[in-house]
Amino acid sequence: MVEVSVSQRITSDDQLARLLQIGIVLEEVVEARAHHHYESLDAELDEEVETLLSDAAEESAEHRARLEGLIEGLGVDSVPFDEIESLVDARYGRTQPDDFDGVLYDQLCNEETAYKFYDDLIEAIEGADAEFSVDRDELLDTLEAIREEEAEGVSEVTEVMERR
Amino acid sequence: MNTADQYLKTIYVVQKQEDGPASTGSIADALGVSPASANEMIGKLEERGLAEHEKYKGVRLTDDGIVKARDALQTYCIIERFLANVLAVEEFREEAHELEAVIDDTVAERLDTIIDRQPECPDCFDPETDACACLEVAAVPAEPER
């Protein structure tokens, strides 16, 4: 019984809400970084990378909205995007990749991290016997759909990286 | 962070606190598990070459165990710091304990890109307060937790 003695389960609405907030922050990081790259590489932007970044930013914004919908159902406030954006700007300005390879690699890490996060979250929800104030099936459907899109994102970036 | 990593982190901290091998009782107490559960996991860690158990003395991490334990402690510090400084969670210690099992190292690394962690991390971890000694809880952002 070692595996369950140290908690690996989600036992309350509050814990679930907190994890969804973390998901929102991860999406905000992706969005803010993609936007940041998009602007910083503006002068010599290559169309393929440009499309990839703008699609990624759009998709993250959409994931964020879906997560917000879920945490609204739990009666918790979201995390304000402008705060995260300024944190990302403040920190990221120092470590900015200076070429397309760096940008693509960063984007790959973003997508992979998001995928891993949703995968672990889904597993933890599936292993939980707690009742949440949001519909469990709807919660899992939403998270599985987002996870699927992150997986697609990983293969898209990998494809572009392999072609270069 | 998986269960094994949570144990490694705890053994590391207890070992430092006790300045010697960590007793099974202290490890079980720190994790809120039964001594039998702790013993079972310690056995697994021994099999993997991450810890050594001496009868009547306690558990000592091997060099490999220490490396993994420090990584796990760093991940834990990132989660605490993120909860306290980005999400303005007052009960960040309790929440970090609740959430650490669900937050993977790769996720923590990404969260790390937006927090200000000190280069001495995780040596700055203070077992007494169960938090990073450099963590400025007073400097919480304006947004209330809820």
TrEMBL record, chain B:
Provide the protein name. Answer: Metal-dependent transcriptional regulator
Q: Which keywords annotate this record?
A: DNA-binding, Transcription, Transcription regulation
Q: Does the keyword Transcription apply?
A: yes
> Which InterPro entries did the record assign?
DtxR_MntR_Metal-Reg, Fe_dep_repressor, HTH_DTXR, Iron_dep_repressor, WH-like_DNA-bd_sf, WH_DNA-bd_sf
Q: Where is the HTH dtxR-type domain?
A: 1-62
SMART domains tied to this protein:
HTH_DTXR
Q: What GO annotations for molecular function exist for this entry? A: DNA binding
Entry's Pfam families? Fe_dep_repr_C, Fe_dep_repress
Family, according to the entry, reads as follows: Belongs to the DtxR/MntR family.
- This protein's superkingdom? Archaea
What is the species of this protein? Halorubrum rubrum
